[in-house]
Design brief:
alpha+beta; 23 strands; five-stranded antiparallel beta sheet; 11 helices
Amino acid sequence: MTETIAHFKDESLDLLAELGNVAQFVSFDPSMRQRYSRIVGSRRNKKYADPSAAVLRLLEQSPERQVNIRSFLPDQPRSHAFHYGVSKVEEVVSLLRSLSSEGLFTIVNETVDLSDGGVSGVYLGDVIEFAPGETPRCVEGPDVAELPRSLGERLLSVAYGFRPEVRWNPSSRIEFSLHPVRRGYRRAHTILWEREVVETSPIEARIRWPNKFSRLIGDKAFGLLVAWCLGLRVPRTRVIPRGLPDFAFGQKTRTGERYLRTAPREQNPGKFTTQRGWLDPFVLVHSEDSLGMNLASILSQDAVEAHYSGALVTDADGSKTIEGVRGGGESFMLGAVAPEVIPPKVASAVESVYERAAKVLGPVRMEWVFDGRNAWVVQLHAGSSPSRGRVIYPGKPSKWIHFAVSDGLERLRHLVERVDMKGKGIVLSGRVGITSHMADILRRARLPSRLEDPVGV
């Protein structure tokens, strides 16, 4: 017969409160005698006159003026009844009596708004995982942000303006949440939910986006933020997201000029506005995404003195292709002008940036600007391209459709998204780069495609 070890969840919370900030709470045994309490403005484990007084105090000190009620049995780890967002003392006490009559222990804790722009997640070994709008259990599902601990902490500290207050230990699994508004027993931005000692072998983070956090701030913003946290040269960028307060990062360029860039939730090459100079960002967002379905943020970014601009992709063989033009790269990326011969000095600077990024991220794709001395990153994406040589995306269609690059990006997008392309492939006719947005659209559509004319002919 297996012996069951008693586990008191409220006792664990009380011990966790010695290590960091926890959500305010008060707990009771099945006879409704108070066990523990951690409420702002009161001493540790203060005993209140009765459950009503304890609940009233907790509601008064909770930012949402709401509480949750959890119940448990020490010898049964499975979950029991849970009540969310209760705001009246009488209702809370009534629920406590009902749960107590079933022999259950209860914990009443402040309701924490999970839609406040913060994130929840887990530290495990040297990896941190997190996502917005969910509990720490989000790590059991797909698309969470997964980063090495040090990189993840730097990224979060830039995005939120404070570093996670977690006493990291390589042998611990720690559930946490971060919040723009200070809360919890210690009135801090970080809340600890659970700490467990585990035996883990070394694990490595798999850094990929899009993920749930990159969709919150925008694919473009996330890639640039990763680049900056890796120590790469990124123009000073202010991010104005829909879902959390604005933040800034990067290095001033001293040109005195700005770009206004849109950041969709996921990469959508050339679809939304990039404007040299200033536009009314509110008018821009309303005109291009009035329903708020696509654009996650607006970026105001310092312009770089562009001697050369272009893009780099890592192809299916692991080889790097660097393309670009003199001056600004907007027309090149849109497929309006062909790539030029890149001087060795420029290619060397771009490749050096690539090597630094790839050391942590593996193969990457990026857009760059060279100012005469240094290469700056203006977009960064993890992963290699399926392209190889003149082939943009591999496949053997039964019919090839020739598309003239002079017809423009939007006509290509219309062809790919709205025409039945089953069994068909596309040949880009004209001088266009394999790193251009035209090629990006075909790769993202996974449509068999290739370039027709050799670049430079």
